[in-house]
Amino acid sequence: MVAGTLTAEMQSVGAELTKRLDEAALNVRAAFWLYDAEHRGWRLVFATPKVRSEGPKQVYKTIQSALSKVETAESGVSLQDVAATAPDDPVVGLLRAALRSVPGISGVRFSGSAIKGVLVSDAYVYRLM
């Protein structure tokens, strides 16, 4: 997890990586940075049905390949900061209940709000479908 503040560089890496994963036909249904208050860090989350159909190992290989093409030196983002999950993940569902985005790549900050009784400390959402 990347500790500290979500920087402009991290936001840029997230958008670029989402674009590269679209080009790799990963079928990303959700893409967002999520702050974990307990661990005091940020995780870049991608939800794709391929986690179930091809397995997480293959999805992480695709993410690593795309990440190697993205400039991450300024942001410090690595594969360890990324989580791949299925679109029916509970956290994805919570965010989807509060926000909707179009298939492209946007950038919406969502912080300090409760969704269905669950506090979302902070999130930066690129896509939720």
Task: Tell me about this structure.
With 129 residues, this protein is of the alpha+beta class. It has one domain (2-128). 32% of the residues lie in helices and 30% in strands. It is built from 4 helices and 6 strands. The protein has helices at residues 8-23, 50-53, 56-67, 90-98; strands at residues 2-3, 30-36, 41-47, 82-85, 108-115, 118-128. Strands 1, 2, 3, 4, 5 and 6 form a 6-stranded mixed sheet that branches. It starts with a strand and ends with a strand. The mean pLDDT is 90.
Features:
six-stranded mixed sheet; about 30% strand; about 130 residues; single chain; alpha+beta
At a glance:
This protein has 129 residues and is of the alpha+beta class. 32% of the residues lie in helices and 30% in strands.
Question: Count of helical segments?
Answer: 4
Question: What is the share of helical residues?
Answer: 25-40%
Mean pLDDT: 90
Structural class: alpha+beta
Q: Describe the global form.
A: globular
**Topology, number of strands:** 6
Q: Please trace the helix and strand order, writing H or E for each element.
A: EHEEHHEHEE
Q: How many strands, what sense, and barrel or not for the largest sheet?
A: 6 strands, mixed
Radius of gyration: 13 Å
Give the uncertain stretches in residue-range form.
Answer: none
What share of the residues does DSSP label as strand, in percent? 25-35%
Whole-number tally of structural domains: 1
Q: Between the first and last Cα atoms, what is the distance in angstroms?
A: 24 Å
